[in-house]
Automatic annotation (TrEMBL):
Residues 7-175 form the Glycosyltransferase 2-like domain. This is Dolichol-phosphate mannosyltransferase subunit 1. Pfam families: Glycos_transf_2. GO terms for biological process: dolichol-linked oligosaccharide biosynthetic process; GPI anchor biosynthetic process; protein O-linked glycosylation via mannose.
Length: 273
């Protein structure tokens, strides 16, 4: 039996209807003659937040049919980022890929994404911001505005072109270097790029276009957007806290000098103080 080298992590909540097409399409892509990654070296690991919607039974059926898929059900935790972290912790492979369960991350890109990872390439990112890619072409305008705005806010934190996509991979040794991971954060790719200190030269990017959600409902809510802003604030402090302190000191000194000049007596005049 071959030793597993790759793990595909799928965080899920009430995605039972999408799991069969997701798993079968992943392994169909891996079994193509031109796949750079052999299917027998890959596992699909679903991290389910106690959906109770038939997800466990669906994965069990797929496993019985010969697909290397398994599921971990969390009963005391919730949230996308913490599910991804749990998946990376449980993964058998050294090269790990995260993707959504809703089929918006096309499974046909999995072999290329996995093959991009190596001891020299620690992070791979599916990017919608590349020549020839129609960015979020099937999304309504408000979703595209939110996506572009979220990306712009993250630009000072990383040189990666699209840390918002959620379709990304990381080597296990790089993941283990990350400290103080915020499991409540909205964008775990951005979190890991910053906290695992991934240099630009160790990042590969694979252009892709978002697919359309097949089943279920979008998880994007106002609460999620607020969580993202909170995550950004924490990452800015993590990355630039010394600059924040320096800026505060400079502002204080400028204000002190200004007030001193304002209150100081002019030549020939006496201070009232």
């Amino acid at each position: 039996m071959s030793t597993l080298q790759y793990s595909v992590i799928v965080p899920a909540y009430k995605e039972a209807r999408n799991l069969r097409p997701l798993v079968t399409r992943i392994f169909a892509a891996l079994r193509r003659v031109d796949s750079p990654v052999p299917a027998e070296l890959v596992e699909v690991l679903v991290i389910d937040d106690n959906s109770r919607d038939g997800s466990v039974e669906e994965i069990a059926a797929l496993h019985q049919e010969g697909y290397n898929a398994r599921i971990v059900v969390r009963t005391t935790e919730r949230g996308l980022s913490s599910a991804v972290v749990r998946g990376f912790q449980e993964a058998a492979g050294e090269s790990m890929l995260c993707m959504d369960a809703d089929l918006q991350h096309p499974p046909e890109y999995v072999p290329q994404m996995l093959a991009s990872l190596s001891p020299h390439v620690q992070f791979v990112l599916g990017t919608r911001y590349a020549p020839g890619v129609e960015v979020d072409k099937d999304w309504p305008l408000y979703r595209r505005v939110i996506s572009s705005g979220a990306r712009l806010l993250a630009l000072p934190l990383t040189s990666a072109s699209d840390p918002m996509s959620g379709f990304f991979g990381i080597r296990k040794e790089a993941f283990l270097k990350a400290r103080s991971i915020n499991g409540a954060g909205f964008k775990i790719a951005l979190e890991l790029l910053v906290k695992a200190h991934i240099p630009r030269g160790a990042i590969a990017e694979v252009p892709f276009s978002f697919g359309v959600r097949a089943e279920g409902e979008s998880k994007l809510t106002g609460k999620v957007m607020v969580k993202y802003l909170e995550q950004l604030a924490e990452l800015y402090w993590y990355q630039y806290n010394w600059l924040v302190v320096l800026a505060a000191v400079l502002v204080f000194l400028v204000c002190a000098l200004f007030l001193r000049a304002l209150w100081a007596p002019t030549d020939g005049a006496q201070s009232k103080w």
